[in-house]
Design goal:
Elements: H1 19-23, H2 26-32, H3 53-91
Length: 92
Amino acid sequence: MSSWETPGPAQPLNEADQPEATERPFTPFLDTGVANNSLYICTPIDFQVSCGYPNLAKLLLGLVLLLTTAVVAVIWFVVRRIQRRKARQAAN
């Protein structure tokens, strides 16, 4: 195993995680052919999902039901108001 390879799951080369370590291996590699990865810190990968698809589906279903109930309530209110107006006009 060379100095560039690390055991375990492959870690992405992400500048946002370790910016100073990202710059360092390339300069010596171009000069000597061996990369310097001494600044990299092995961080374990977290596979815990904070908000997965089942939770998103439940939220979306709740939102659809809420909007449907609101639309039906508004339609019912408008129809009832129109019926009351017609009843008042017929009574006069």
